[in-house]
Design a protein that fits this description.
141 residues; alpha+beta; 35% strand; globular
Length: 141
């Protein structure tokens, strides 16, 4: 199990993009990459959560590859924001492989969400290991 809390060191960088946002994320493994990418999403949206009671949600997602799984996971986070007004400060990954993610999200009602994010797309999205010797492509949101 890998946990994310928003007080960790920043492991992503925003990349200049003409119309939307894009950022590059680094992680030691797929689980860390997913968690850091989620933190980047919250940070770029300038999200603050309300103090007090914490709420948990569980997500179980399947996809054909890691990139599709990442997009599905992000869109699930956006769904919780849009439908329930929730944001998350902790992610506990219970299971993650190239095609399946199961995680518990802990968060609260969003107090502030400065920048609207409509969707996460596949545009220039790639996940790779350094030994693959191919260039980083940013995540576009």
């Amino acid at each position: 199990m890998l946990r994310f809390k928003s007080s960790q060191e920043k492991r992503f960088e925003e990349i200049e993009h003409t119309a939307d946002w894009a950022y590059r994320v680094r992680g030691k493994n797929l689980a860390e990459l997913f968690i850091e990418a989620a933190w980047g999403l919250d940070t770029l949206a300038d999200m603050d959560l309300a103090p007090g009671i914490r709420i948990t949600r569980t997500i179980k997602l399947n996809a054909i590859d890691p990139e599709s799984l990442l997009v599905a996971g992000f869109n699930e986070l956006l769904y919780f924001h849009d439908s329930e007004g929730l944001g998350f400060e902790e992610i506990s990954i219970k299971h993650l492989d190239d095609t399946r993610l199961e995680a518990q999200l802990t968060g609260a009602p969003v107090q502030q969400w400065q920048k609207e994010i409509k969707a996460v797309t596949y545009h220039n999205l790639s996940i790779f290991h350094p030994e693959m010797k191919k260039p980083h492509k940013p995540i576009k949101i």
